[in-house]
Amino acid sequence: MKELTPREIMHELDRYIIGQEEAKRAVAVALRNRYRRSQLDEEIRNEISPKNILMIGPTGVGKTEIARRLAKLVRAPFVKVEATKFTEVGYVGRDVESIIRDLMENAIRMVRDEFSKQVESRAMVLAEDRLISLLVNPPKKSSGNPFEFLMGTKKEPEVPQEEREKLAVRREDILQQLRSGQLEEREIEVEVEDSLPELEVGGNSINIGDMMGGMVPKKTKIRRVKVKEARKILLEEESSKLIDEDQVREEAIRRSEQQGIVFIDEIDKVAGRSGGGHGPDVSREGVQRDILPIVEGSTVNTKYGAVRTDFILFIAAGAFHVAKVTDLIPELQGRFPVHVTLKSLTQDDFKAILTQPENALTRQYEALLSVDKVFLSFEDSAIDAIAHAAYVLNETKEDIGARRLHAVFEKLLEDISFNAGGDEMPNVYLNINGDYVLEHLGKDEVTMDMKRFIL
């Protein structure tokens, strides 16, 4: 885990997320507390559990983005789930333990990628050697009695010394051509492992080969591919041979338990409605009761081993328009002690979103259309007009937060996007100002209609 201070974490989050200082401070402190805990003696470390966070705010204001960027910042295993996809045990739907299984899959993938990079140089040499062998001496189809190979009675004929010397010279020539890139488009046949089908049992995928205890021989198939593609296939195979899967599994379990972040969205949708007078809602409260042991701390069995959830950081989020936080069952409320409220976006926020982040929409659309030789530039007046239009539309229609900007941009650049492209397309330089925005969005879209608020 990177040793970032809360201030440094805030600074990194500010690069992508505008405003929402309270929420960013809360997650920054929670992340730093993880590092502080990791430096303590084991006796006291096991007594300190993370303080889970509940984010309250409308859609599109940055709840999911904060959690996702936080996990990416420290390369922690991360999974985002929708609370509405789960149902009480005994009903049709996903069971809540699949959250931890998904987290574990992400951790395995992350650790395996890191281990692959560590052995990449060695794997590259081995893959290159196999590639040369395939180019110099393509594999021939086996002939004769297959039982002779199986019983080990048939041996490969010995290659004469003169032939071996010719092969060595030939290999050296092929190596030089390979490294100079002359053979990239040449086609060769590569034998690859054909994975056996997997069965879904109780939320776990089980490989048929694993079920048979490895008694089933590995099935292979021949693929005819270009050299550049064969290099990737062989590199992946050699990397997997060099990686200790037991070590990958142990490290992934450790990271999931100690650094994992689970983001549960739409938590308000499984809260019972207060004042409904219809009695308890079985399915909603059932989901909450099933989520509770995962958040409190339990052991979940996965195909990679048992995973404890005691020290996983859980971040829940919801709009809470209809239901209130107090509609959640008290035990679940108690497991999310830190509550932060995210505010609706103002016109100034929209303007900042369009100019400050590294992945601002203006830069995204400039890059997209430059592919088709359309080079956009946005004046300050255009940024002001787009921000005002998004704010007005959110106020007069449904408030969908920053996602409103996507709708505004698509309408604004619809004609340009449709007409751009083609080999005969000349370079087009388009400067977008406030008048252009008003003309293409229409004045009705960017002027607040006060009649909507008069009874």
Can you give a write-up of this model?
The structure is a single chain. The chain is an alpha/beta fold and 455 residues long. It contains 20 helices and 13 strands. Strands 2-7-10-1-11 form a 5-stranded parallel beta sheet, with helices on both faces. Strand 8 and strand 9 form a beta hairpin. The protein is flat and about 85 Å long. The model is unreliable at 448-455 (pLDDT under 50).
Structure keywords:
alpha/beta, 13 strands, two-stranded antiparallel ribbon, disordered C terminus, 14% strand, 455 residues
Give me the secondary-structure topology.
Blueprint: H1 6-14, H2 21-38, H3 42-45, E1 53-56, H4 63-74, E2 78-82, H5 98-118, H6 120-136, H7 146-151, H8 161-179, E3 187-193, E4 198-201, E5 204-207, H9 208-211, E6 220-226, H10 227-242, H11 245-259, E7 261-265, H12 282-296, E8 299-302, E9 305-308, E10 313-318, H13 330-334, E11 338-341, H14 347-355, H15 361-370, E12 374-378, H16 380-396, H17 403-412, H18 414-419, E13 428-432, H19 434-441, H20 443-446
Parallel strand pairs: 1-10, 1-11, 2-7, 7-10, 12-13
Antiparallel strand pairs: 3-6, 4-5, 8-9
Helix pairs in contact: 1-2, 2-4, 5-11, 6-8, 6-10, 14-16, 16-17, 16-19
Major β-sheet annotation = 5 strands, parallel
- Proportion of residues in extended strands: 5-15%
**Strand order of the main beta sheet, please?**
2-7-10-1-11
Q: How many helices?
A: 20
| N-end to C-end Cα span | 56 Å
What integer value in Å does the Rg equal?
A: 29 Å
